[in-house]
Each structure stands twice: as C-alpha cells, then as structure tokens.
Amino acid sequence: MIDLSRLSLNQATVQKLGALDAIDLCVRHDIAAIGLWRDKVAQAGLAATVAAARAAGLHISSLCRGGFFTHADASRRAAAAADNRAAVLEAAALGADALILVAGGLVPGSKDLPLARQMIGDAVADLVPFAEQAGVRLGIEALHPMFCADRCAISRLGEAVDLAAQFPADTVGVVVDTYHVWWDVQLAADIDRAAGRIVSYQLCDWVLPLPQDVLLGRGHLGDGCIDLRAITAMVLGAGYTGFAEVEIFNQEIWDAPADDTAAVVKSRFADLAGAVAAAAPEPER
Amino acid sequence: MIDLSRLSLNQATVQKLGALDAIDLCVRHDIAAIGLWRDKVAQAGLAATVAAARAAGLHISSLCRGGFFTHADASRRAAAAADNRAAVLEAAALGADALILVAGGLVPGSKDLPLARQMIGDAVADLVPFAEQAGVRLGIEALHPMFCADRCAISRLGEAVDLAAQFPADTVGVVVDTYHVWWDVQLAADIDRAAGRIVSYQLCDWVLPLPQDVLLGRGHLGDGCIDLRAITAMVLGAGYTGFAEVEIFNQEIWDAPADDTAAVVKSRFADLAGAVAAAAPEPER
C-alpha cells in the first residue's frame, strides 16, 4: 500500500528554497518527509537543519549526495573519499534513511569505462566500513545512460544492484529513480533482485522534448511518459516500505511559487497512489 | 584487420548533399561505400541513384531506414508495414548490405513499453518473409535510451540481439552504432552474442555538452569520449567483415564544406584503424 503518508519532497524540486524554508514548506503542506541536499544543509547549518527537522517532526528520507569518485589523481580521489566521509557524518546527524551516491563519470582524460567502474567499486568498498560504523545506509544510484560520460558510469539499476550486492545490505543499497531507469527492459527483474536493498525511491516524469540542459528535463508526475504506476507497483512488490520522494529538476517548476509546487506534488502523488491501489488492491483477509 | 578500404560514409554526415552529390563525394575521396537515406534516394530517384552508384563502382553499405512500427491504429500499423515493404524493395534495388530499422518509441497515447516492444516484434515478424524473398537483410538498431520514448523502444544492443535471434540470421541482424551503445556495461558480451548477425557497424563520437537537439550531439571520431578502438576491436572480434560507416548528426559538421568533412572522416578513420591494428596486431603465421 502506498498513500500520502509516504510522500517525501526532495528539496531539489523547490530549488530556490533553503533547507529551513523547505522544511517549513513540508510542514505547511503536511508532507511527512524531506530529501535534503548537502549544499543547502551547509548553507543553513547542519545543526540548525537537524533542529528544525526535529522540531517539525519531519523525517529525512535522503541526503543528496556523495559520490563523484572518478579522478585521475590519487590526491583528488583522497579528497573525494574525505568528502564522502563528511557526507556520511552529515547523513548520520540528520538521521537520513540513505546517503545517495552519484558515482561519477569517465575519469577525466580517459575513455576507459571499465576503469571508471573499477574506481567506483573501490571507492565504495573504501567507504563502507565508515558508513557502517556511522549507521548510515549508502544508496547507489544508477543515472540515465545519457549521463554516463560526465556524471555517473553506473547506468542501469542492475549495475547498481551488482555493486551493492558485494556489501552488507544494512549498509549498501540502491536508489530507484524512475527518470533514470524507466526505459530498461530488465527493470522489473532488477527491481526484484534489489529486494531488501532499495534504500530510496525517487519519482519524476520524463517529458518531451528534452530541454537544452538535459538535467532539467523532468516533469510533475503524470506530465510525461513514464508508467509510474507500474514501476511503483514493482518497488512495493520488492518489499520497499520507505518514503517515495518526488524529485524534479525543471526550470519552470523552480520558477513557480513553492507552495503551488508542493500542492501539485501532493495532488499528483495522491493520484498515483490511487492508481496503484486500484490496479493491485490489498488482498482480502 | 580494418583499414581505409572498409570505410563507408553515411550520407547523413553530409546532410546538405543529395544522394548523387554524396556518391560523387565518395568517388572524389576514394571512399568505397556509402550509407544512403530513403528520403534522399527518393529525391534523386531510385533508378538514377542505383545507376550512379553502379557507374561509380560504389558499394551501398546500408539504407536508412525502415521501422517506426508503433502506432495505436491498425490502419497506421498497416501503412507502416507497407512503407517497410517499400523500403525492402528499395534496399534490394540498391543492393544495400542492410536495411536499417529504427523501431519506433512508445505507442502514441500509451506508457506501456512492453506493448511497444511487442508491437515491434510482431511487425518485424511480419516483415521477415518479405525481406527474405527480396534477399534483403534487416538490421535492428538499438537507439540510446534517451530516445526510448519517441524514437526507438529497443534501447540496448542485447534487446536487438534477442529480437533478431528469433529469425534466420540471413535475414535479420543487428546494427552496432557506437553512439547508441557505448555506455552499456554488457556491450562486449552482447557484441559476442551478435556474432554472425552484425549487419552494419556505424561510428561517431559522443561529445559534451549535449546540444539542445540531442539528436545532433555527435562528433567526428576522436572528438568525444567513446572508446572507439575498443568497440571496433569487439566488432571485428565477433567476425564482422562489412563496412564501417561513419554517421554523424551535427549541425556544425553539416554546415562545413562536404569535401572538408569527407577529408576529416577519412583521416580520423585512418587514425582509428591504425590504433586498432596497433593494439591487436595480426597473429604471426
């Protein structure tokens, strides 16, 4: 079952708000959880953000993000490792369900994808004990293949599952983001394989045409072509009981009043939850 | 072994030329083969194009393209089937090595990817006997997942191989296009699986940032981040002995003088062939 109580608002959806204003927005709209971004938390102050979320009774469904592990220099890799440990500590302080990892693309100056993927695996392995000790769950996110070169060489959910499976499920899981994985013919099978390891479920829609900056080509749930009902049913079927985070990168939505955006997010999510429930009613007892 | 004798110029690389001018360009630059597009062939006239290519001793490595099978109405599907049969006859008249099939995206008004893929499979099955009789080899092309919604629901080479494998290898094969498949962690395995079924090998590079129209974000070989040497070695390793077709959609390249473009295409291809040979020398006898 999924309903409005499981909605989380990723603050990237209301990009212009600081962390504290985004927390207030969730409270005003009776949204129970939020996904935060490190840069916004840093601007507001980690302690102030923790205090505000706690005072509001707001759950932190994710902290975005660690990762970007692929660097040619050992010194840059060490700096990335240090930054990721800092991210783990922030996630721990916030009590976030997961620290989202966007792995990084090709190593600068190299066309060697296997090298990039090896570097990512090594860096995750290096981070795991620290995360385990901090009680933080890492979420490996597959990004759409159009970001493979410059942002994330983990291009399919199945790759994220394969990587996560090398580590304890308590510490390393995967992120299912509808925008990045919807096209994959193996999606249902890979979500099944991810059972017990889905640490974050993020939603937005794929709208056409893609805008000039393809990072921003995302839409409100229902405005695009992704079968969100089907994917949500798969994620629930894999036993995921966490929050469903709406995360939309879209200049037009960013330019809209945040309260309007929150209202649309809630309404569209309620529609989706209703469609999921109608298609797969709870079994009778 | 790969060398300049195996270079083919896809005429989309010199978009402003008609078919006959593109044929002349290949002759001027001692390029042995060309990939033609149906719209350009229609403009020049099929018979005139056949005659010009024959007179020039130019091989036709591919005809682009059939496909676009996904339609909500039976009447539109029937029209697409008729158009594909016409494309088969054109490919036969041209003696093209393959008719390239771009399958089509989601069925208009539907978010049901499995439905689109089923429709594609059914349409290919319907076309196969006709192609077989005409002696034309169909090439199923996987397009990059960023085109899944609107152009091609076959998003990975492995999907194309799975579909092709349902039919005789003499009639149905796959296209390996570096731009569409380079990011895929399973690429090497899928190229292996495609052995005996690769009917076209197309090359261009992935350049960043992606332009506003993501169809046009392709570059000359070596200008982007694809490991073309590695992929070419995989394709050769799978026993492919056909032409290697350079196909670049890029407004800047289209705006350049066609002779300059042909010269760059040749020079870059020679560099690539040299790198492939250097990395994997012919076995001593």
Estimate percent helicity of chain A. Answer: 40-55%
CATH topology of chain A: TIM Barrel
Shape of chain A: globular
Q: What is the number of helical segments of chain A per DSSP (H or I, 4+ residues)?
A: 11
Overview of this protein structure:
The structure is a homodimer of 285-residue chains. Chain A is α/β, with parallel strands linked by helices and 285 residues long. Chain A has a single domain, classed as Divalent-metal-dependent TIM barrel enzymes (TIM Barrel), CATH 3.20.20.150. Chain A has helices at residues 19-28, 38-44, 46-56, 74-94, 113-134, 157-164, 178-181, 187-193, 228-237, 251-255, 258-279; strands spanning 7-10, 33-37, 59-67, 99-102, 138-141, 172-177, 198-203, 205-206, 218-219, 244-246. In chain A, the strands form two sheets. An eight-stranded parallel barrel of chain A has the order 1-2-3-4-5-6-7-10, surrounded by six helices. In chain A, strands 8-9 form a two-stranded antiparallel sheet. The first copy, chain A, is globular, with a radius of gyration of 18 Å. The A-B interface holds A 106, 111-113, 117, 144-146, 148-150, 153, 155-156, 159, 182-185, 206, 208, 210-212, 214, 224-227, 230 and B 106, 111-113, 117, 144-146, 148-150, 153, 155-156, 159, 182-185, 206, 208, 210-212, 214, 224-227, 230.
